[in-house]
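User: Can you help me understand a structure? I only have the sequence.
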Amino acid sequence: MRTLRYPRGWPATSRIGERPQEKGIDVALAIDYVVMAVRREFEVGILMSTDTDMKPALEAVAQLTATQGTRAEVAAWSATGRHNRRLSIRARSLYCHWVGRDVYDQVADTTDYSV
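Assistant: Let's start by predicting it. Here is the structure, written out as tokens:
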């Protein structure tokens, strides 16, 4: 859990549908991904994100493949009839786990965290 950033005037005068956002989650995830790889806490690290800010972490873990055997892979959403995006890095062919609606339904967390 990270600190929430509230929209200006929230909730009384903020724009419709605007909600508080956690900030720093992507940085925390990137640090964990790299640190866990360096500590050899996983053999295959699958990063599920299309946020290009995550590329440096992905590149760092991919570089460890040669020295430690840690493997970097990615995962991304897949939907029929839509342009499906995934993270990639130069000079590396990363395996991508395409996740469709069927898998999403199996792993979805339906917990209401607002309570």
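Now, to help you interpret it: The chain has a mean pLDDT of 84. The two ends are 15 Å apart (CA to CA). Let me know which part you'd like to focus on.
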